[in-house]
Amino acid sequence: MTVAALSIQGLHKSFGSLEVLKGIDLEVAEHEVIALIGASGSGKSTLLRCINLIEPIDAGRILIEGEEITAKGVKVDRIRRRVGIVFQAFNLFPHMSVIDNVTLGPRKVLRHRGAEAERDALALLDRFGLADKAHDYPDRLSGGQQQRVAIVRALAMQPDLLLLDEVTSALDPELVAEVLNVIRELAAGGMTMLIATHEMGFARDIANRVCFLDAGTILEQGPPAQIFAEPREVRTRQFLNRIIEAGRLQV
Amino acid sequence: MTVGGPPDTGIDPQPRVRGPRPSLGPGGRSNLIAAVSTVVVFVVLAVVITNAPGWPAFQALFLNAQIFWYSLPLVAGKFWVNVRLFLTAEVLILVWGLVLAVMRSLPGPVFFPVRLLATIYVDVFRALPGLLVIYMLGFGIPALGIPGVPNDTFFWGLVALTLLYSAYVSEVYRAGIDSIHPSQAAAARSLGLSEFQAMRFVVVPQAIRRVIPPLLNDFIGLQKDTVLVSVIGVVEIFRESAIIQSAKFNYTPFLATALIFLLITIPLARLTDWLLAREKRRRQGGGSVPTGSRRPRLLAFRG
Fold first, then answer.
1. Smallest Cβ distance to B189: which of A80, A84, A140?
2. Per the domain annotation, does B173 fall within a domain?
3. Do B290 and A108 touch (CB under 8 A)?
4. Is the complex ipTM more than 0.90?
5. B55 is a domain residue
6. In chain B, how many domains are there?
7. CA-based Rg of chain A, rounded to a whole angstrom?
8. Which residue of B has its CA nearest to A105?
9. Using an 8 Å Cβ cutoff, are B96 and B166 in contact?
10. B72 within domain boundaries
11. Per-domain residue ranges for chain A?
12. Is residue B29 part of a domain?
């Protein structure tokens, strides 16, 4: 039996009296791409932030390749090296050039030598069509370019698992495709990913499995064909109907 | 288009970069009004002062040309002491102030004692009058006679100014650190950087860029406050002026001293204002639109 890349067991998380995650169980195999869909406030972002240990959890366990990362005494920084996260608002470091943004982690955390880190970063930037932007500052880039840099920055740490938190939600519509193409390429390359997204068409194309989050639980999960074509749960159907009405998903 | 304005040359009459100061507005009319009112104010002041009953005595005591030219090179020579004092102190203040600010900004219960100590320090040195601290250190510590501890008054003046100003400067730094959005630290931590590394490489560099103008302001204050160390016997520019004054029974040396301070601090004050105005423009003027390569890199980033 192979060990799951990511295993979440009975995860609970509250902010004050508001329980955001009410018992999440999820197993993710290596190279699997999971799309997390659901209304705003359903807990998608919180789930990703818990996996990255940005948010401390209240109950349950999270295991990465069999190692419990939520156990007491686990060094948080060591876990974060293995789990990359990309945020909705990019969160690039505005005082650093693109190349410095990308090499900061490898240099300071992985202790790569400057030249080595730079070479690797340039190769990554080149792969995603950003090589000519290496020495620009983030505020000179378009939103799509900034988000691609943010993805490259996460990839430079060579994570085992990549978390994408509504990475296209802050982008102008015409810039969404370039970011989605990057994620497609990553999926084709076998990157294990958890993707919280409102891009249903994209989720249908790229995900091996779709999880529908509703009020802090995974209400329904399955292959995209099943979830989008014949959802079992009423709530899933209602959610998808609203998305279709909004023109965000072609049936 | 205003009536009576310049003929339409196709140039946009509205200046787009200038601030909203009406006195600097376009058009001959407002310039004329500004010029006339300035002249009127200064003429009135000059008339009132020169017709004051004590004017001749004042002239003799404060505006003696001969004593001015005699004292100028002497006080200027001693100004070097002040320059050494504020340059050395400023370096120490910038470093120690930042250490204090970082100490106060470290999160988590583990660092509570560190935060507490830094807070007490800042509270104490902001509460005490500067003159008092200079007195107590300058006279008190040498009086203890501890072997190996310097009793040089310049040294203790330097220490006192550093202790006092670093308390203020640490608050400036801290405001800068607080102004950096937490998502920046979160992004750094998510790459695996430690709490301290996130501060060191991501938060503090951005914070410092933001607080350069207020730091310059404090630097101006420090330059002037170097004269306070004269009270513990350091012969610097103010003490030198006082020595000449008591020898010549004339206050003109203080005028020379005042001029030297104006010469040093006014350009710095202008620079600070310019930096502040530019920062304000940058924040208001649609930060999302890059203004091209002319944009100075010093403060060029978005919040």
1. A80
2. yes
3. no
4. no
5. no
6. 1
7. 18
8. B191
9. yes
10. yes
11. 6-245
12. no
The identity of residue B147, as a single letter, is P
- Nearest residue on chain A to B291, alpha-carbon basis: A140
Question: Do the Cβ atoms of A221 and A199 come closer than 8 Å?
Answer: no
Q: Which pLDDT score, from 0 to 100, does residue A78 have?
A: 81
A189, A27 contact by CB (below 8 A): no
Q: Do B192 and A95 touch (CB under 8 A)?
A: no
What the block records as the tokens of B289 is 């639109």
- pLDDT score recorded for residue B269: 87
Core vs surface per residue B18-46: b (16+ CB within 10 A) or e: eeeeeeeeeeeeeeeeeeeeeeeeeeeee
- State the residue range of the domain holding B69: 62-280
Strand stretches in A115-178, DSSP E? 161-165
Question: Which residues of chain B lie closer than 8 angstroms to A92, CB-CB?
Answer: 187
Interface test with A, best of B110, B177, B181, B190 (most A CBs within 10 A): B190
Interface check for B292 against chain A (CB to CB < 8 A): the answer is no
Which of the 8 DSSP states describes residue A159? -
- Alpha carbon distance A187, A10 (integer Å): 27
A6-245 — its CATH code?
3.40.50.300
How many angstroms away from the CA of B195 is the closest CA of chain A? 9
End-to-end CA distance of chain A: 38
Q: Provide the CATH number for the domain around residue B162.
A: 1.10.3720.10
User: Do B302 and A94 make contact, defined as CB atoms within 8 angstroms?
Assistant: yes
Q: What is the DSSP string of B75-117?
A: HHHHHHHHHHHHHHHHHHHHHHHHHHHHHHH--SGGGHHHHHH
Q: For B259-270, what is each residue's pLDDT tens digit?
A: 999 999 899 889
Instruction: Supply the pTM of this predicted model.
Output: 0.79
- The answer to whether A226 and A233 are in contact (CB under 8 A) is no
Mean pLDDT to the nearest integer, A87-116: 93
**pLDDT tens by residue, A48-61:** 999 998 888 999 99
Chain CA centroid to CA B273, Å: 11
